[in-house]
Amino acid sequence: MNITWSCKAFNTLTPDELYSILQLRNEVFVVEQNCVFQDCDDKDQQSYHFMGWQHNKLIAYTRLMPAGLAYEEISIGRVVISPSIRRIKIGKELMIRSIDKLHELFGKMPVKIGAQLYLKRFYESLGFTQSSDVYLEDGIEHIKMIRN
Q1: Are 126 and 97 within 8 A, CB to CB?
Q2: pTM here?
Q3: Dihedral over Cα of 44, 148, 108, 126: its sign
């Protein structure tokens, strides 16, 4: 699969890129997961946006956050793959590239995430370990995980 990867600070995103990001996040987090929540949480402006494009369509995305924004550690959030391409299993590539870019941007240090509980094994395969009890976020079971 031919995917073009890019990473941009919020203030360098084009209007079309920002629209594509919000559209994909809404498609999955609001519509598919039937979860009403405030996606625009004032963290986007201080984050980097890691994007995977195929034929000018955003198909994969993560939000890369500096230490102190979501957690004391650097963090990856809003991990999303377009439902139209999930069958090709690019989630692992997206996360590996995101971790590499996060370390390039902020230095090699521990990474903390808030993960949906059903994805625990997936994140463990990337070196994350559970660091909290299960908690509900927007009606979905989550756990905090860390990768040292």
Answers
A1: no
A2: 0.94
A3: negative
